Amino acid sequence: MSDKIKKEKLIIIGGGPAGLTAAIYGLRAGLDPLVLMGPEPGGQITTSPEIENFPGFPGGINGFELMQKVIQQVESFEGRLAYEMVDELNLKQKPYTIKTGNQVYQTDTIIIATGASPRKLGLVREGELLGQGVSYCATCDGAFFKGQAVAVVGGGDVALEEASYLSGFASKVYLIHRRNQFRGTKLLADRLISNPKLEILWDSEVRDLLGDEKLSGIVVENNKTNEKKVLNDVRGLFIAIGYNPNVSLFEGIIELDESGFIKTNDRYMTNIEGVFAAGDVQDPLYQQVVTSAGSGAAAAIEAGQYIDSLL
């Protein structure tokens, strides 16, 4: 780590849709923001097989390609992207201090855009079988299950998209949802229901994972009848039940809501002056690429006005 402290006008923590859009707006406003990209450059949307609801792409676009275009746009404005993770931050007094593995930064203004991470089922062997049949990313791992049966857990857009994507590889796709109707977009749901490779298990939950070193089946229980079913043909289990906000760095420092998301006012500022938040880390309702980008833009505008007020 460098002993020299680098002072910045604006630091953005997170390199997903919210953070990178904030960077674009900050750059155009002459704020020269530094983006600390974190562990997942581009954000978790890079794992989405196809995005059909982002304006400007009538034929759809996969998440990785979309975020590469956004990164290129930031770089076209000579934006500074640091592929570093934040290890520690001190928000007790200004200037605020942010430590990464390579550098110590100080700033009076921060935009937090750390996003969210996949929610787990909480099964006993879930972690043990991760990468051995259990996955949270169909785009990353779907091709490994060509010609085999897989299962997807969830009922929102992400689960529906993953089930549709996996049907291009798998011999059969079980879609397991704990309710009796999907929460996802009707267009996606209608498309799936007519897919001959798909079998929907309504009102059902995964209770157990089978197999020693690799997944060799799952146990599913109907939560209305309590009937259990063993699916011995399942070799891949894709969990798509939502996301938890990435707030471990900020717990006990920044005020969170009852679900653990960062609380902000209507100008995207947290309870700490000069510290803003945008994207999935502060959005418990929508969690869409386009809303994340919009909140990133808004947070950058507000941060710019705040910086101007300090002059």
UniProtKB/TrEMBL annotation:
The protein's required cofactors: FAD
GO cellular component: cytoplasm
EC class: oxidoreductase
Catalytic reaction equation(s): [thioredoxin]-dithiol + NADP(+) = [thioredoxin]-disulfide + NADPH + H(+)
Domain FAD/NAD(P)-binding per the UniProt entry, residue ranges: 9-296
Keywords recorded for this protein, A-Z: Disulfide bond, FAD, Flavoprotein, NADP, Oxidoreductase, Redox-active center
Single GO MF descriptor: thioredoxin-disulfide reductase (NADPH) activity
GO BP terms: removal of superoxide radicals
Superkingdom of this protein's organism: Bacteria
E.C. designation(s): 1.8.1.9
Entry's family note: Belongs to the class-II pyridine nucleotide-disulfide oxidoreductase family.
Subunit structure as annotated in this protein's UniProt entry: Homodimer.
Name of the protein described by the UniProt record: Thioredoxin reductase
Gene assigned in the entry: trxB
